[in-house]
Amino acid sequence: VASACRAGTDFPLQNLPHGVFSTGGAARGGVAIGDEILDLQALLELNLVPRSLGELVGVAARSSLNHLAALGNDAAAELRAGFVDMLATDGALRGDVERHAGLVLVPQRLATMHLPLCIGSFTDFMTSVYHVTAARRSRPARPLNDNFLHLPVAYNSRATSITQDGVPFPRPWGQRREADGSVVFAPTAMLDFELEFGAIIGRGNALGSRISLDDAGHHIFGYVLVNDWSARDIQQWESRLGPFLGKSFRTTISPWIVTATALAPFHVAPKPRSSEQPQPLSYLDSPAHRRDGALSVSFEVHLQTARMRATGIAPARIVTTELAYCAWSFPQMVTHHTSNGCNLEPGDLLSCGTISGPADESAACLFERTAGTLPLDLPNGEQRCWLEDGDEITLIGRARREGYVDIGFGRCGARILPAH
Ligand code: MN
After folding, report:
1. What is the pLDDT of residues 76-107, one digit of tens each?
2. Cα radius of gyration (the chain)
């Protein structure tokens, strides 16, 4: 697949993420390779799958990947080795697959992507100290809560309103308090995005049991980009018990699940804490985790307004940031989540929270960047404090490490429609 060898592709042979797609007919499982999708249903129908892999490919070909996630990462790695055999230049299974390339490879531009699995629970963490303190030119830093460096703070968010890349949604209505003190019910006037990154749980844990830090990585099936859309006016007025309607109207994720196996080369040491900062308690710390518990991934947010689109102006990059700004890793989130015996299930989504860094360009939501008063300048002269109808926000991400081929996460975009 020539497009898989092109520099800058999100989906080289080293990635092979799982997704669910359709081309007019039933939704089915596929694996992204370059600009194409390896159609797993077609592989099975054409008898191109060796018997030893038949059952696994059958599970990965379903219209929902919860069962694949539940099989655990050894199964995912075995499957991945099979796909490499089918697609690599020197792959043992390449010849048969190549002869049927026109039947087993579907151009991504002709496919509709679906939610890759049923997400039963969505937990949203808050792990960037820069997001919490929001120290910007616009205002002084908020104080860091005294628990922030002791535990990864989170709330139970809404799973039913998660949709995949490309699904537009209307500006939500909600209650807010106006500057004059009156309380109104109206379309939000402070619509925002939040650039986040999420882990999809693979094998779960039994209710009442815990997942240890060194085992936590084995319970993560893969990762997706997450846009935790937020209505700041609704959120500010309602929040006494954590976020609710200001967040639950919509969350957008990227449709391809990049497996934990594909990300194995991108593990790095978490940033060490300073000697004045509290060290993690022992259940959130281990030598192995200190060695390579974090991931090296960078992200961008792009904004294209309706007017930019109409006049052929490309989306403007408005955020560049990296996962290293998060003070807690995904294994630490998994371990903390289950530390009271709470059970995680295959397909659950754990998101790391807004990935803001110290610079203005790394403020990963408008609330931090503009505070509603210092507008962002766009290339065509337009300005934004908050998102307007017709605006389209797209997140992208890449795992990078010296000596390895970069892999990407595909697109995570959606357009704002006028309120109903
Ligand atoms: Mn969030």
Report:
1. 999 999 999 999 999 999 999 999 999 999 99
2. 22
